[in-house]
Design a protein that fits this description.
Belongs to the RNase PH family. The chain is an alpha+beta fold. It is built from 6 helices and 9 strands, in the order ββββαααβαββαββα. It starts with about 25 loop residues before the first strand and ends with a helix. The N terminus is likely disordered.
Amino acid sequence: MTQTPSGAFHGRPSGRAVDALRAIRLEPGYAKHAEGSCLARFGDTHVLCTATIEDRVPPWLKGGGKGWVTAEYGMLPRSTHTRTDREAARGKQSGRTQEIQRLIGRSLRAVTDLAILGERQIRIDCDVIQADGGTRTAAITGSWVALHHALATLVRFGAVKSMPLTDHVAAISCGLYRGEPVLDLDYAEDSDCQADANFVLTGRGGIVEIQATAETDPFEESEFDALLKLARKGIGELTVLQKAAVE
């Protein structure tokens, strides 16, 4: 594949370089009433993340002295090209929705000291306003900012002795598009890639979760290594944006 002197990969629909993120914006304090909030914009994917503090924990955690972080995820009816009924109207959540919200919760708990949090629950809500690929990665990245702001409120009022967060956590997608490893897939690439992967990594580089799938032929370990290298670069850039959003 040919590249311009600036490194732009001609094969990408957006014209981005293979290692370039979409235009990313993390807007903290977007929701007036939530203890923490962030509007995460990954290009044309926009996800509103809010954090609510509850002075209770699930029944199975009562008396243990530890807190909990959980998440809910949903897509608004016109977040996609055609209208999709609200899952509440259908009477049940899809398997995809359940899988994504569990992933968000696991990702945030991986960098939260639940003992410092005490017997409180932080409930994260992620609502996809507009979808163009990578909604789960935007949700995780924005949710960390919302969670940080909510926890900072507890610290400020002396409800907890120190910040319960132990590290950043962010997520990004990578894939093989037209035979080339590329970073941060938009919908056009995600719907036509040979393989795609979602990487959830901490700010220090620890691996929280990796979801990788061959859409056509199996891919090689060397290709996976290239995707992981791209993901580490992208997570590093997202961590810088998260830091700026919570300063």
